[in-house]
Amino acid sequence: MKKYVETMDRENSLLVNAIGICISSITYIFLEWINNTYPPLKTKHTSIPEIMIDIRDLRKSLGDVEVLKGISTSFEDGKINLVIGQSGSGKTVFLKCLLGVYDPSSGIIDFDGRDFAKMNREERQSLRSEIGTVFQGSALFDSMTVEENIMFPLDMFTNLTFKDKKKRVTDVIGRVKLENANNKYPSEISGGMQKRVAIASAIVN
Hints:
The chain has helices at 2-37, 91-99, 121-128, 146-157, 162-175, 191-203; strands at residues 51-62, 65-76, 106-111, 114-115. By secondary structure, the chain is α+β, with helices and mostly antiparallel strands. The protein is built from six helices and four strands, in the order αββαββαααα. β3 and β4 (114-115) form a beta hairpin. Helix content is 45%, strand content 16%. The chain has a four-stranded antiparallel beta sheet, covered by helices on one side. The longest helix is centred in the N-terminal third of the chain and has 36 residues, at 2-37. Mean pLDDT is 79; it is low at 2-8 and 18-34.
C-alpha cells in the first residue's frame, strides 16, 4: 500500500510539472502573440508647456489696505486655470491687475515676454485686444442689440470693414447658438442667452 501511494504521488508530481510546463508554454506563446499583434505604444516626448502669463511678487494696495501680498504664479498656454478664494480675498483685484484696470503697487505681470508695466498706451491697447473678458453680470449694453453688443469689441480694437465685422459676428453667433437672436435686445432674451452673448463678445476678436 505504501509503495502504491508513493507511486501515485510521483505520478501526480510528474503530472503537475507537465501541466505547469504546458501553462508556461501557452502563456509565453500568448504573450508573444500579444506583442506581435499589438506592439507597445511609443512614448511621446511632450514639450515643455509655454508660459502665457507670468506673475512675480504682485502687490496691490487700496488705500491703507494691502489686498495682494506678493503673489507669484504662472498660467500655461492652452490650459484652463481657476482663481479660487473666499469673498474679499482679492480675486477681483487680482484679475483687474491682469487686465490693466488697476496698476499694481509693485511686481511684474509678463504677457508672452512683454512686461505690462513697461508698455505705453498703444501697446497696452493692442494687448487688451488679445484678451476676452466675460463679466459675472454679462455687462451688455441695454441700448444695443445682440449683434451690436458682439460687434462692439471689433469697433473698438480693429479697423475691419463692416462686412468683415458682420461676418465675424455671424460666425460667433453660430458658435454660441444664438442665430435667431441677432436683432433682439438684452431685455428680450433670457439670462443664459445674455451670458452666451457675453461669451461671443469675448471670442469675436
